[in-house]
Amino acid sequence: QVELVESGGGLAPPGGSLRLSCTASGNIFSRNIMGWFVQVPGKPHKPVARIFSNGEPIYDDSVKGRFTISRDSAKDTVYLEMDRLKPEDTAVYFCSLHWTVGHQSFDYWGRGTQVTVSS
User: Fold this and answer.
1) Residue 87 buriedness (CB in 10 A; 0-12 / 13-18 / 19+)
2) How many whole angstroms from its chain centre is CA 37?
3) Which of 60, 64, 98, 100 is closest to 78 using CA atoms?
């Protein structure tokens, strides 16, 4: 059983910063991708940032230059440093963990943490 527990989030003013953390526990395959998705009402999940187990990051264009994803693989933890926040960053942010073994794909999700950007 794999569990993802998120922390961080909350309310920040436009231009402010927030930091999200997510720690995975359980039987985790070492070669994996951890990341953050958002869900805005009425729209499907959208990837914000992901990071491979080798540290290579991938960002959505909307957050490039403002958000930084990092991970501590020894702790199975992923972080999202969110700077220069905009009101349109408001959403529920979900931590994700993904790996494939052969033809099998495994996906796990956290419960989500609310990020609200407002003055």
Assistant:
1) exposed
2) 6
3) 98
Look at residue 40 in the predicted model and tell me its pLDDT.
74
Q: In angstroms, how far is CA 2 from the centroid of its own chain? A: 16
Other residues' Cβ atoms within 10 Å of the Cβ of residue 18: 21
Q: Which residues pair with 51 in a beta bridge?
A: 34, 57
Regions of the chain short of the pLDDT cut 50: none
What secondary structure does DSSP assign to 59-113, as a single string? E-TTTTTTEEEEEEGGGTEEEEEE-S--GGG-EEEEEEEEEEETTEEEEEE---E
Portion of the chain with pLDDT greater than 90, in percent: 88
Q: Distance between CA atoms of 106 and 112, rounded to whole angstroms?
A: 18
How far, CA to CA in Å, does 11 sit from each of 71, 110, 113? 23, 19, 11
Cα of 52 vs its chain's centroid, Å = 12
Q: DSSP secondary-structure letter at 118?
A: -
Integer Cα distance of 100 and 93 in angstroms: 23
